[in-house]
Amino acid sequence: MEIIEEQIIRSEILIHDEKKFPRKPSLIPIPEDKFKIGYVFFFFMGVCHFMPMIFFATANNFWMYKFRNPQFEVSDPTNRTSLQKYFASSSQIANTAPTLIFGIFNIVVAYKYAITSRISITLGIQTLTFLLFTVSCQIDTDDFQGLFFGTVMLGYVFLSSTMCVNLVGSMSLYSRFPFEYTICCLIGEGVSAIAGDLIIILCIAAFDGAIINSTFVYFMFGSALLLTTFLLSVFASRTEFFQHCLHSIPQETKKMPSKKELLDVFGKIRNVIIIMSCFAIGMSVTHTAITALVVSEQSNTVWANSYFSPVMTFFLSDFSLLLGRLISSFIPIKISEKVFLGLTIIRTVVLVPLIWLCNAQPRKNLPVIFGHDYQYGLIFFILSVTNGYIMNYCSLYIPQKVDKKDADTAYTLFGLMMNLITTITSPIGMFIVNVL
Fold first, then answer.
1. What mean pLDDT do residues 143-155 have?
2. Distance in angstroms (rounded) separating the CA atoms of residues 149 and 291
3. Residue by residue, what is the 3-state secondary structure of 359-426?
4. Would the pTM count as exceeding 0.90?
5. In this structure, are residues 165 and 49 in contact, taking their beta carbons and an 8 Å threshold?
6. What's the pLDDT at 247?
7. In the chain, which end has fewer C-beta atoms inside a 10 angstrom radius, N or C?
């Protein structure tokens, strides 16, 4: 995941510990979930939480091709164009800035609209956006690269804005449905990044490395997945089971949380916000602003040109992230929050600069110390595993610290704070690109 970048409004609890977080059974019998449509919808909803941003980021080879110098048939990583050089860091800014605005929207305005409406509308907008970029794969943009670059950034804005609203709406469903449905959604989140990575690798292999055709089919997969989830959201929300669970906790549509309520909830989750702030800073100056520029030690080989970026930068990152979340679920660290914060800071200070010293191109100032592919892979693996551990730790922390009635407010406030922090820190990635 990249990207997770990427974007950090998440409910990252991968496995539920019933001894620590027991769920009280409903006093009213729940209608049957016919054909398990609820499970299917929650799984697809989880897959699509971050899938649009994952697909965009993982198609790094495609963007590098689109923004190359058309006068040269072979793109030289050590002499990239400005659009190639700043694409990843610019997309981070376009990705994070709108989420701050819509994070405020989630607190101030979103409560006025039905949860299901928010989810369905945002899925519809994402589907249309993806379809447009799928078509753009077949359009020659060499004569208007600047305009296309701006269009891609606008696409990031649409996707990140709708993702922000969709995520908070989805989280509002968690407390209204049996926990098995939340698990199903979180499993969908966990597999979405790896599935996206594997799909693009298979597309590259199927088309023998042809960037345009492989990306076209890749985006078609994404469009079909979003369209399927949109249709499921419309159908599932009309079932008796879904309506029963949806109204098991009345949705407040008349007033936003008071200042006192917000401050009280903030006080309970402030430690996790500080920990995630360290995480966000580390991400903003590594993945994908720098990692998208890392190239293989080999030159002009199939591995270097077609497979290195999707395998070593995106698949490795997403696999390691999932592994870190699993380790956090099975082997939780029983230490104080302050000690965990200290370890997080040390880990960030040590590992982040090592990524800068890998073979990210172009560069003029810093030397390449870790130029071998395996060295980059090992450093990035350790960084991503610890990222996953931190994310899962923080998500498990929130439901322990707030009452069930304050869960919606806590997740919304947490998301807003993360949006604020990532918006502030995302331009640092562009600065680090120049430092290299």
1. 94
2. 20
3. CECCCCCCCCCECCHHHHHHHHHHHHHHHHHHHHHHHHHHHHHCCHHHHHHHHHHHHHHHHHHHHHHH
4. no
5. no
6. 81
7. C
Q: What is the pLDDT of residues 304-357, one digit of tens each?
A: 988 999 999 999 999 998 888 888 877 877 888 888 889 999 999 999 999 999
Q: Which percentage of the chain shows pLDDT scores above 70?
A: 90
- Assign 3-state DSSP to the chain and report helix, strand, coil percentages, each to 5: 75, 0, 25
Nearest alpha carbon to residue 11 among 279, 381, 345, 407: 407
> Domains (ranges, CATH) in the chain?
34-435 (1.20.1250.20)
Q: Is the pLDDT of residue 253 over 90?
A: no
CA dihedral (243, 246, 247, 252) in degrees, to 10, reads: -140
**What six digits make up the tokens of 284?**
């903003």
Q: Cα separation of 209 and 205, whole Å?
A: 6
Structure tokens at 293: 């520029």
Give yes or no for a contact between 291 and 355, defined as CB atoms under 8 angstroms apart. yes
